[in-house]
Amino acid sequence: MTETTAWLPTDDQSQPFFEGASAGELRLQRCSDCQGWMYPLKKRCQHCGSTNLAWRASSGRGTVYSHARLQRVYHPRHEGRLPLILAWVDLEEGVRMPSNLVDCDPADVRVGMVVQVTFEQFPDGTVIPVFRPL
Amino acid sequence: MKHPMNSVTAITGLGLTEMGRVYRDAEDLAAEAVFLALEDAGLQKSDLDGLLINAGIGEGVGVPLHMTLGLKELNLLTYMQGYGSSAGQMIQYASMAVANGLANTVCCVFADSPLKEKQRSGAVSYARRSQPDAMTTLDTIYGVVGALPKYALAAQRHMDLFGTTQEQLAAVAISQRRWAAMNPRASKREPLDLDAYNASPWVVEPFHVLDCCLVSNGAVAVIVTSAERARDLKQPPVYIRGFAQAHNHDTGQANHDPLIHSAGARSAPRALAMADAKVSDVSQCQLYDCYTYTVIVTLEDYGFCKKGEGGSFVAEGHLGPGGALPTNTGGGELSSFYMWGMTPVSEAVIQGRGQGGERQAPNDLIMVSGNGGVLAYHSTLVLSPEAA
């Protein structure tokens, strides 16, 4: 991959998520009516059906719902990083999201482990949220 | 009191094309399967008045199949999509239509041809082929692509919570390979032991390649008609004693546990209630086995063992030849062929007729599962060679 290759297509709808990551925040959608949180992208609140959604910074803290080790390259980012730790993280806000765990030995990961969001920058400048043990 | 749907309909015809690396378009395979099912049942094309179609996504099979088949006057026709639960669903809708007089003889067909020449099976994508948006691409960047990593996450959660082991996952693959050795249609018939399983490459740990179903081209059709009519046809009827569906939605919220509790937990008890049967009455299972773990979680959710004990249950040898609960007696999707829910359905019909040859198992009551999405879409059938 060269410096100029885009790793992610961009779209207006998800821009706040990636802008948040660049600013060091895990931003999710939150319903302005029922205050329910959800993992993007939603057009309508999963809890109450409202379309009155806003982007808000989450705590970025959660626990591991489950984990697995990727052993095949599906994307250039995976090159040289296998086994990459896949995880579904249950955030304090009640949202479950897919991500990767970094800065830990795959053998040490357990369901229920407490994790905190951190951020990874790609060669093209895109930033994504990942998690590390707290 | 007997449920009004119990044993009112039966499966009479079964058509299976060649399976595996058959480089033909899915619609042509579907048409062949329909003709094979008609021949099997001793029926003419003109006897069909209903056609339900399900196929792999993006393979070009749809409602126009009735024109390819030259079915001029149908009373029931639609394309259905419930992923891995579709086969069981089609049979349920066909039964309800037949029981209520909307149609008399309904063919349910599935076809798929994801394998292309000179392409590894691992390169096959069942996903939509449109340009992904940023959030979908992010899933790929994380490595959570398609169903496989999510089932691997499910298996790992089961391992962490209940102490389920790699050897217990292996026990499912090994047991089904023993059945496959007795199935001339099975793609993988060579013996499999724990060493060979462990030597199989990792895909997403805890899954080796041998924890994952095959990728197959082919088609399967079954014909549903009234129990009364089925008794006059060429093949022994396989009665539809009970059925149900349950569909869960993974909301992406942390307040439920969809990787441990499948939709089958709600579907199975209702199907058994319709059949006026208990779990202990079941003689054999044909379970959707997209991954080894799917068998373990389905056995638990169907009540064959307690939640969390599926790993030790399968390791005790119940599922294999001679076991107390013969399961996936054709080798299943892991070792025979992957025709979505038609893999378990077709083997259930063969077993229900007593045509399993050397792999024939006790068949008084057969439970069949269909599973789609990530343990989200579920259909259950209870079949028997005897009417209630």
Write out key terms for the chains shown.
heterodimer; A: five-stranded antiparallel beta sheet; 1 helix; B: alpha/beta; Peroxisomal Thiolase, Chain A, domain 1; 33% helix
Describe the structure.
The complex is a heterodimer of chains A (134) and B (388). The mean pLDDT of chain A is 94. In chain A, the strands form two sheets. In chain A, strands 6-5-4-7-8 form a five-stranded antiparallel beta sheet. Chain A has one helix spanning 15-22, and strands at residues 27-31, 37-38, 53-57, 61-70, 84-91, 96-101, 114-121, 127-133. In chain A, 6% of the residues lie in helices and 38% in strands. In chain A, strand 5 (84-91) and strand 6 form a beta hairpin. Chain B is of the alpha/beta class and 388 residues long. Helices cover 33% and strands 18% of the residues of chain B. In chain B, a hairpin with a 4-residue loop joins strand 10 (366-372) and strand 11 (377-384). Chain B has helices at 26-41, 65-69, 86-99, 134-142, 147-162, 166-180, 194-199, 227-230, 264-274, 292-302, 310-315, 332-335, 342-352, and strands spanning 9-16, 50-55, 76-79, 105-112, 202-205, 207-208, 218-226, 238-247, 284-286, 366-372, 377-384. Chain B has a domain at 9-116 and 215-228: 3-Layer(aba) Sandwich (Peroxisomal Thiolase, Chain A, domain 1), CATH 3.40.47.10. The chains are: A mainly beta (134), B alpha/beta (388). The interface between A and B is large, with 46 and 37 residues. Strand 4 (61-70) of chain A pairs antiparallel with strand 5 (202-205) of chain B.
